[in-house]
Amino acid sequence: MRKLTKINFFFVLLFWIGISFSQSQQPIRIKTKFLGQYKGSIPAYTVNLGDRNQEVKEAAIQFEVGKNDTATETIDNVEKEGEVKYFKIEKSDDILIVFSVEGYAFPIRYRLNPKNSTLKREGFGIQPEVLLKKN
């Protein structure tokens, strides 16, 4: 039997890490009862622009999860359409929804709580998190 050299061990370890990571990051499907509209509001917050503070007003937000891995996010009548992928969050019943819009550098992340049909939108930088409830 061949000895397991350090190089061979490294490649075996790298292979198993790659397999386990790819297994845990596979997109999943969600039940149709979670499709539909979720509504909430982004609370007012303040942005420090160096020499002054700028107040950002409260804004209504709506997120509609559609069929065929599509979604629409509307913030104060500004609508963005994109595609979504769903991932199971380990050690939780929650589902991560990654909303990608063409032309945007970063996807928007939502966390679906299937027990109470709510979405939590992760804020960007200083923007606060938002809780949306299903209609």
Task: Please tell me about this protein's structure.
The protein is mainly beta. The protein is built from one helix and ten strands. The chain has one helix at residues 6-24; strands spanning 36-42, 45-48, 53-56, 59-65, 70-75, 78-88, 95-100, 108-113, 118-121, 130-134. Strands 1-4-5-6-7-8-9-10 form an eight-stranded antiparallel beta barrel. Strands 2-3 form a two-stranded antiparallel sheet. The longest helix has 19 residues, at 6-24. It is globular, with a radius of gyration of 20 Å. The termini are far apart.
Task: Tell me the structural class.
Answer: mainly beta
**Strand/helix succession:** HEEEEEEEEEE
User: Would you identify the regions where 5 or more consecutive residues have pLDDT less than 50?
Assistant: 19-23
Q: Nearest-angstrom radius of gyration? A: 20 Å
> Largest beta sheet: what is the strand line-up?
1-4-5-6-7-8-9-10
Counting DSSP E segments of at least 2 residues, the number of strands comes to 10
Count of alpha/pi helices:
1
Fraction in beta strands: 35-45%
Report the average pLDDT across residues. Answer: 85
Helix content: 10-25%
Shape: globular
Q: In whole angstroms, how far apart are the ends? A: 64 Å
Strand count, sense and barrel status of the largest sheet are: 8 strands, antiparallel, barrel
